[in-house]
Specification:
Elements: H1 3-19, E1 53-55, E2 58-60, H2 62-72, H3 74-77, H4 98-107, H5 119-130
Helix pairs in contact: 2-5, 4-5
Length: 133
């Protein structure tokens, strides 16, 4: 008789946890740009076949940086960099250099944990954000 409440509690817990993290909206993997039909691509969005940008912040792939940002950072910083739990990043390049942004990505700052984005992805996002002025 003592097993019934235990089994019932385990079943409720398993059911509750299985609902966590499920979403009807799927996102593409971080390494691949999103696949959208050509007729629905907004005029302001850069095509995925664009060559890497060369700017004062260095060379980077804007489409990959934006996709990685949306998959990894937008929950705290917003889909359009407007800020939410994390700070607004729309003009972060006028405040911080690529190297400073990269250091924050690697070491964390405030509530932001270190190492959410690593390696080439971190360098790509840092250069992309450094151009946001």
């Amino acid at each position: 008789m003592k097993r019934i409440p235990l089994v019932l509690t385990a079943a409720v817990l398993a059911f509750s946890l299985s609902a966590c993290g499920t979403s009807k909206q799927t996102q593409p993997p971080a390494q691949q740009p999103s696949q959208q039909p050509a007729t629905e691509t907004p005029a302001t969005e850069k095509p995925a076949t664009e060559t890497p940008s060369t700017t004062p912040s260095g060379s980077y792939d804007a489409a990959t940086a934006e996709t990685t940002f949306k998959n990894t950072c937008s929950a705290c910083h917003g889909q359009t960099l407007e800020g939410a739990v994390g700070p607004n990043l729309q003009k972060i390049g006028s405040e911080l250099s690529k190297e400073q942004i990269l250091a924050i990505l690697e070491k964390g700052k405030g509530a932001m944990p270190p190492g959410l984005v690593k390696g080439k992805d971190a360098e790509n996002i840092a250069a992309w954000l450094a151009d946001k002025k």
